[in-house]
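Case study.
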Amino acid sequence: MSAASTDEPDERAEFVAFVRAHQHRLMRSAYLICGDHHLAEDLLQGALVKLALRWRQVREGDPAAFLRTVVYRDAVSWWRRRRRERLTSAPPAVSGPDGADDTSTRLVLVDALRRLTPRQRAVLVLRFLDDLTEARTAEVLGVTVGTVKSQTNAALKRLRELAPELKELLHAGREAY
Amino acid sequence: MGIDQLSQLLRESAAEVPVPDLAEAAWDRAVRVRRRRQLAGAVAVSVAVGVLALGVGIPLGGTVGDMGTAPVPTETKPVPGVTADEMPDTPRPRAVLGLPRSPDLRATAQQQLSGRPVERAVALYERASLPGAPDPEPVFVLGSDGALRVLDGVGLDFTVDEAPLQPTSLSPDGRRAAFPQVDELVVVDLTTGRPDTFRVPGFNVSVRWLSADTVLVEQSASASIVDVARRTVTAAPRPTDTLVPDPVFQWSGPRWRNGNLEVGIRVGGPSRGYSGTNVAVVDVRTGAVVRLLVLGPAAGRADATALGWLDSDAVLLRTDQDGVVAWNTSTGEVTSVTGPFDGQIAIVSR
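After joint prediction, the assembly is written out as follows.
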């Protein structure tokens, strides 16, 4: 019997505790990237399995960063393949928690987000929901800091164009971009 | 644009998204996947350059006790004098086996295999399935003529948790492909495009070609040998590992034999000196690690797969981040064979 088997109950408990502490934030991020909570759940589940397979290596490092990287890269990868195969730029219909036809501000934002490119969405969610620096965002997405900057600017500009009602609200605070 | 407002809006937009408890299910699934990958690695295919030989102590019709010596332990700590190569950030490109750098794996873009069979396949591809997909992605066949075909005329399903194509699916002569399925083994004659089905009851999880005509099919607690030419299925004892399980490093996926050397992917804890994922070449006579390629802890290189020996010195492997690379175990050079590829690939070495 290998050491892996005798340590497994402890590792499992540790993994479960870690996931339960982080899955809310990751699920929210995945949802904003995909626009569909069922798909977000599938993405997160796939990422969690990858993390579990590497738990012994990653646990002493930064498992949150590992998990975030996998979720984001899988989400961007999924979206690119889906869009290419369907030969259309139309993203999937937004499937929110209640599915209701709601014109609230947050659904306006989600609707506008889905019209961005997958990388633009990922950059916005990483920078402004996950509060990552430009450098960390670049690391997660496997791109340069310059790309993060340009994608962020392009995304915010596009959001303003797509959601004029948000433009007023978003300009009320301190201008950063 | 007010960043504070944007952050607030993003939080509010996703605030009501339900968050199921996925932790335990994810761990349980990973345990199953890990066991299956270790299972696949326990039987190393012995492939000398240009010649196929049996790599395990299971002669056809025999038992494990008839042949083979006791398994040898692997070294758990770095051996003085062992060269550890580092995976470069961007390996130099190199054309190998006619593999395209970016194969076009759209079913609509390629001919069907039944309409254009191959003389011999060089590689099989299957992209990673989209999350939640009910069916696996189609399998593509790269012929020795350089053309891709989509495998048609056969309905493949996921095998427990994984896609049907395995790195060991392609026969050593490149003429057949084997896919483990529940209760059966599907073997496709790539020279005609015709599938054949062999009843092997149970949850078949891995396959290994023992010769051009025989396949070892494994389940978690049993194994069978399918003779494709004679159309027989024979129960066989589970093969014993050629190497003693290591208490620190875990072998992941198939291992490949070349004479007295065996190569495979290992994953281990950071406390043991070689953290993350690495590719290890082991001398099966002593269990000593003779060469290492350190892939490191990067997420994009965590899921690495050894694909086999390209020649007497070079090993092919795949990572999500790099695609297929060739590692020369004599010089340490790593070259890039394909671009990044998210999926499974099986290659036949010459």
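Observations recorded in class. The two ends of chain B are 59 Å apart (CA to CA). Residues 105-236 of chain B form a domain with the Neuraminidase fold (CATH 2.120.10.30). We will return to this complex in the next lecture.
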